């Protein structure tokens, strides 16, 4: 259970006596220059029709600032060149635009790609994506106007994208205490088809279904390790955020995340450990005389057929099924129901599974047709070998009863009251956005606060810190800084500044209006 905390403003930063701004007729200096190569703003194609696609494409800033240098800014041109801008030179007639790196282009067409994105992880390190599924780790050198150093790619990978577009939301470089290695953490946002998401638990846990939308937002937290001059993949965690992500950052020293999103959300994949509840050994080793049957199976010379029974309303989004040559795994929602090594190898390509009215059926094609199977899963005594499908049906009532007992024990029991008994005042609003801290070691959310005002914008903080975010507070805008984990106090977000009457227009004494601008 998350620990609740408050976003409590500092009174010394608020000015209750502020009356407003005075109109000035002085002209503001405006400098306008043509860039060497234009910027192309990509838009969703016909297959990218969800709200999350529109949001990901629309809320994209092509101008990138640098936390380590306030004298330069960067942009990526339509031919995928990265240009450095000397900000001081913009007041002159000949501004300084310098091309520092050319992204490799692996495909001519960029249809369906996200806009290219760039994030600075350290004083001399950046991560870049072309928007088409390729991630580059780049040595930038010191990024000052005077430094003419051209960038060099140190590592490129398609593992994160899997040929699917993604957008980099944040990155951070951390060095171990012994200075023997460095760890680079990158956050990548994807909008994926529900059927293509690799998940260790069922997406229905988060209310995902094709009836609502065929797409889901995924935030991927990938880590790379730098040892002896070489970069290599270290770990990947994937979080499902069905209702969209508003903010994501890595908290120093790179062991936790700060997110702003609507519930439900949670981790669905970890490359180092399974996030599904494991099948305990004592559950596998049932006594032969017990009637707690989890599955039935039969065999012919060519194949093995397995049956498992679930609730009749079970859909494919409630299950995670993994068939490999030597193993079989079934996860129902968040609980593992079958997992282990098969008695003999099978042919994965010709093995199938189907689900109909809650009955899950596997047809596993044998590699060696001459072998008879004495058991299905090694060290798992919960299965019963039967003669045929008719005999298997006799066990269904027993398995159904077992399923109901298991769901009741696991928190799947029906509520003690129905929603029809609720009054309007009892109804909790489901569209509230919250600030979360996600712990990467436990894979759990540890802290949570409900946003007290409208989320306005984000801004870079000091080097090494997560970006700050601005919330509406009455007519003001308050800047909140997510804390790093080095501080020896309970985690939270610190109120660091107040922008008086931000976006506030007093149209008349009787009518007041608000506006938001980038």
Strand order of the largest sheet: 1-26-25-15-14
Number of domains: 2
Q: What would you call the shape?
A: elongated
How large is the share of residues in beta strands? 35-45%
User: How confident overall, as mean pLDDT?
Assistant: 85
Distance between the termini: 36 Å
- Largest pleated sheet: 5 strands, mixed
Q: Helices and strands: which structural class?
A: mainly beta
Number of helices: 4
DSSP strand tally: 32
Specify Rg, calculated over alpha carbons: 28 Å
Give a brief outline of the structure:
The chain is mainly beta. It contains 4 helices and 32 strands.
Task: Describe it.
Keywords: Cytoplasm, Nucleus. This protein is mainly β. The protein folds into two domains: 278 residues, no CATH class; 87 residues, Immunoglobulin-like (Sandwich), CATH 2.60.40. Helix content is 6%, strand content 40%. The protein contains four helices and 32 strands. A five-stranded mixed sheet has the order 1-26-25-15-14, with no helix packed on it. Strands 10-11-12-13-16 form a five-stranded antiparallel sheet. The chain has a five-stranded mixed sheet with strand order 22-23-18-17-24.
């Amino acid at each position: 259970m998350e620990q609740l905390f408050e976003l409590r403003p500092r009174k010394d930063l608020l000015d209750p006596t502020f009356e407003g701004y005075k109109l000035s007729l002085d002209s503001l200096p405006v400098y306008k220059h043509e860039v060497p190569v234009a910027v192309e703003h990509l838009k969703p194609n016909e297959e990218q029709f969800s709200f999350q696609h529109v949001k990901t494409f629309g809320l994209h800033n092509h101008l990138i600032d640098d936390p380590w240098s306030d004298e330069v800014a960067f942009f990526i041109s339509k031919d995928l060149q990265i240009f450095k801008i000397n900000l001081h030179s913009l007041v002159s007639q000949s501004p300084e635009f310098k091309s520092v790196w050319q992204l490799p282009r692996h495909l001519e067409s960029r249809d369906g790609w996200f806009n290219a994105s760039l994030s600075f992880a350290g004083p001399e390190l950046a991560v870049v994506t072309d928007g088409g599924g390729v991630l580059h780790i780049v040595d930038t050198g010191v990024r000052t106007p005077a430094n003419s150093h051209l960038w060099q790619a140190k590592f490129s990978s398609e593992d994160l994208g899997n040929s699917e577009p993604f957008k980099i939301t944040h990155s951070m470089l951390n060095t171990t205490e012994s200075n023997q290695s460095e760890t680079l953490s990158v956050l990548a946002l994807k909008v994926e088809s529900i059927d293509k998401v690799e998940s260790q638990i069922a997406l229905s846990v988060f209310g995902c279904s094709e009836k609502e939308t065929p797409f889901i937002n995924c935030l991927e937290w990938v880590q790379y390790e730098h040892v002896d001059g070489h970069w290599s993949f270290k770990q990947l965690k994937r979080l499902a955020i069905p209702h969209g992500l508003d903010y994501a950052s890595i908290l120093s020293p790179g062991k936790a995340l700060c997110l702003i999103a609507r519930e439900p959300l949670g981790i669905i994949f970890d490359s180092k450990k399974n996030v599904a509840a494991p099948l305990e050994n004592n559950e596998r080793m049932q006594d032969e005389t017990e009637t707690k049957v989890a599955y039935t199976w039969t065999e012919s010379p060519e194949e093995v057929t397995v049956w498992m029974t679930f609730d009749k309303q079970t859909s494919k989004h409630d299950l995670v099924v993994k068939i490999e040559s030597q193993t079989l795994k079934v996860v129902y929602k968040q609980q593992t129901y079958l997992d282990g090594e098969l008695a003999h190898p099978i042919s994965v390509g010709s093995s199938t599974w189907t689900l109909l009215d809650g009955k899950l059926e596997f047809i596993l094609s044998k590699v060696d047709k001459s072998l008879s199977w004495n058991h299905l899963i090694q060290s798992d005594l919960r299965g019963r070998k039967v003669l045929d499908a008719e005999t298997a049906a006799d066990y269904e009532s027993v398995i159904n009863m077992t399923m109901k007992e298991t769901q009741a024990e696991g928190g799947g029991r029906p509520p003690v009251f129905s929603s029809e008994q609720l009054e309007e005042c009892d109804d909790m609003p489901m569209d509230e956005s919250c600030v979360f801290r996600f712990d990467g070691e436990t894979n759990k959310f540890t802290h949570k606060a409900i946003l007290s005002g409208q989320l306005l914008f984000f801004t870079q903080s000091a080097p090494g810190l997560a970006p700050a975010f601005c919330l509406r507070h009455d007519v003001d805008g308050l800047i909140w800084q997510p804390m790093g984990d080095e501080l020896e106090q309970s985690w939270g977000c610190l109120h660091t500044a107040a922008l008086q009457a931000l976006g506030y227009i007093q149209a008349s004494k009787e009518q007041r209006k608000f506006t938001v601008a980038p």
